[in-house]
């Protein structure tokens, strides 16, 4: 894990240009640097306890901030202390934290509140995956009989399943909107554009635009599905995840182009609902971004037993939608030689080749900022840098638009980190502490480095790496559920007890990963984790056994590490 040394005397005003501080924050010193990836002040890498009096004071400040946030002007000539362009999960997290810090805040949204995650991503997909999980369990006759259960027949209503996903998205979208309104965030409707230093123009097509000023601006415009050249999208038979989440049909045979998180999750949904799936992957193996041990087990558990076949090392050079009674045609070429391999004929094709930043039309040319492959360049503090490599004062970019880590919760963490900075407290987010999860059945989760990444880092920096694994087959709770398929794997430094990465495949892996994630964020060493107590019988004991299995060199200090930035 990268260790970054930063002088605590670095002026926060040089970063934030005098960002306002609330009374609630008065107890912390300007320039005080915090490295953890957690939001709450209770876990702010300093004191872990706040007095009841301090808590009461904070609640009073929040109430005052909510009522005062609508007052005209920020008090120093700007319309707002902070304007956020984009009301997705990242923008929402930043906005709420800004109001908590006493900043007059506005958020601009040209589509709908919630962004990709809530409306076209992680939220509705989890609704579909909840259905697929139950269908898969009910269809598993051996599993049901082993629990003493008998199921006569199973089926599903496609439209009802689709409605479940849509209703969940609507509910979460409403919750996000109401939470911002309740806190006093001004929600401005339209597409935002930077027109100059600390100036933003917004408005709807066909309506007059309005211009506002802000002491600080955050760009949080997210991303859109990436569609390679040669692929024709019709939204019906050839589509992206945006269309797939509507579940307008369940094709008999669907090709999924890309075997990352998105493709893997949709393969879980479609096979549970009765489809046959063919993966098309450009690299030489499926799930190339996963730790090799996890990818190997995932193929045995999530691919081989299901109606899934695959083509690796090939590009889909051309995809033609179904029409006039003809099927979807997918022309495959060798990824290295570019020679034609074969043509697939399927009922539908889902394009799951990743996402591209949504950064066009933001007026970046007005401030001499040039995107890199569409991403807005930022430094470790999410400060936007211009074409000459200089920091653009008072301008930040978070989330998918900067490309550092394209996850909704990463965007939120980045937004909160930025607000910390403009409130007078320097803060650097440790991206290696941010977990990721794939909500298949069983789930996959990970945080930190894969084993190949860790070994490369060790070779470059001259330290030793060790690896330990534990199995869900040894866990009482997993066995009680008849869900023993799964492993947990940890990569660590035996000389220091530092965790470099943890990877899990198994029941509720997405929930289990956070103990490791928080340990990395807080700099907790294995020496301390070995002494932690876990309730029995619980799945958390999978991590308990993992920590206890680690061999840390004798004589290594038991004190807690200082959290690190990366």
From TrEMBL:
InterPro entries cross-referenced by the UniProt entry: Class-I_Pyr_Nuc-Dis_Oxidored, FAD/NAD-bd_sf, FAD/NAD-binding_dom, FAD/NAD-linked_Rdtase_dimer_sf, Lipoamide_DH, Pyr_nuc-diS_OxRdtase, Pyr_nucl-diS_OxRdtase_dimer, Pyr_OxRdtase_I_AS
Location in or out of the cell: Plastid, Chloroplast stroma
Xref: SUPFAM superfamilies: FAD/NAD(P)-binding domain (SSF51905), FAD/NAD-linked reductases, dimerisation (C-terminal) domain (SSF55424)
One GO cellular component term noted in the UniProt record for this chain: chloroplast stroma
Superkingdom to which the source organism belongs: Eukaryota
Keyword Transport: no
Cystine bridges: 117-122
Catalyzed reactions per annotation: N(6)-[(R)-dihydrolipoyl]-L-lysyl-[protein] + NAD(+) = N(6)-[(R)-lipoyl]-L-lysyl-[protein] + NADH + H(+)
Main location: plastid
Active site: residue positions: 536 (proton acceptor)
Chain sites annotated for binding FAD: 126, 192, 221-223, 400, 406-409
EC number: 1.8.1.4
Family: Belongs to the class-I pyridine nucleotide-disulfide oxidoreductase family.
Remarks, miscellaneous: The active site is a redox-active disulfide bond.
Protein name: Dihydrolipoyl dehydrogenase
Species: Triticum aestivum
């Amino acid at each position: 894990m990268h260790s970054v040394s930063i002088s605590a005397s670095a002026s926060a005003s040089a970063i934030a240009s005098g960002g306002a501080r609330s009374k609630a924050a008065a107890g912390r010193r300007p320039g005080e640097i915090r490295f953890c990836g957690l939001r709450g002040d209770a876990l702010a890498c300093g004191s872990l306890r706040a007095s009841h009096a301090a808590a009461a004071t904070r609640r009073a400040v929040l109430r005052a901030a909510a009522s005062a946030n609508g007052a005209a002007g920020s008090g120093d000539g700007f319309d707002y202390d902070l304007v956020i362009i984009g009301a997705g999960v990242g923008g929402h997290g930043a906005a709420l934290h800004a109001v908590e810090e006493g900043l007059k805040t506005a958020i601009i949204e040209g589509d709908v509140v919630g962004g990709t995650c809530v409306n076209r991503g992680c939220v509705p997909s989890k609704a579909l995956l909840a259905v697929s999980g139950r269908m898969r369990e009910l269809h598993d006759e051996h599993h049901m009989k082993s629990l003493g259960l008998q199921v006569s027949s199973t089926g599903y209503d496609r439209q009802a399943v689709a409605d479940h996903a849509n209703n969940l998205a609507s509910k979460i979208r409403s919750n996000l909107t109401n939470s911002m309104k309740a806190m006093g965030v001004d929600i401005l409707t339209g597409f935002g554009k930077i027109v100059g230093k600390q100036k933003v123009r917004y408005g709807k097509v066909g309506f007059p635009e309005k211009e506002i000023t802000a002491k600080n601006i955050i760009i949080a415009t997210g991303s859109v599905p990436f569609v390679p050249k040669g692929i024709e999208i019709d939204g019906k038979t050839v589509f992206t995840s945006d269309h797939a989440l509507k579940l307008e049909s369940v094709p008999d045979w669907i090709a999924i182009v890309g075997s990352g998180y998105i493709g893997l999750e949709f393969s879980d949904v479609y096979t549970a609902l009765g489809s046959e799936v063919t993966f098309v992957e450009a690299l030489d193996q499926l799930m190339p971004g996963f730790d090799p041990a996890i990818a190997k087990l995932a193929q045995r558990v999530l691919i081989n037993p299901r109606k899934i076949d695959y083509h690796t090392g090939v590009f889909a050079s051309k995809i033609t939608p179904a029409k006039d009674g003809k099927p979807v045609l997918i022309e495959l070429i060798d990824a290295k030689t570019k020679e034609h391999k074969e043509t697939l004929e399927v009922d539908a094709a889902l394009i799951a080749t990743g996402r591209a930043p949504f950064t066009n039309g933001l007026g970046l040319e007005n401030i001499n900022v040039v995107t890199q492959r569409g991403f807005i360049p930022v430094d470790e503090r999410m400060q936007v840098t211009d074409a000459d490599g200089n920091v653009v004062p008072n301008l930040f970019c978070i989330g998918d638009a900067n490309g550092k880590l394209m996850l909704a919760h990463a965007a939120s963490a980045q937004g909160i980190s930025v607000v910390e900075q403009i409130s007078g407290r320097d803060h650097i987010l440790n991206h290696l502490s941010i977990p990721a999860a794939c909500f298949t059945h069983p789930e996959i989760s990970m945080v930190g480095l894969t084993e190949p990444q860790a070994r490369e880092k060790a070779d470059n920096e001259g330290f030793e790496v060790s690896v330990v694994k534990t199995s869900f087959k040894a866990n009482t709770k997993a066995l009680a559920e008849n869900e023993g398929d799964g492993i947990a794997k940890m990569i660590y430094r035996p000389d220091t007890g530092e965790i470099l990465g943890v990877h899990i495949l198994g029941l509720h892996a997405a929930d289990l990963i956070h103990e490791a994630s928080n340990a990395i964020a807080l700099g907790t060493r294995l020496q301390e984790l070995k002494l932690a107590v876990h309730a029995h019988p619980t799945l958390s004991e999978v991590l308990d056994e993992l920590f206890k299995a680690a061999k840390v060199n004798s004589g290594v200090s038991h004190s807690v590490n200082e959290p690190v930035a990366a």
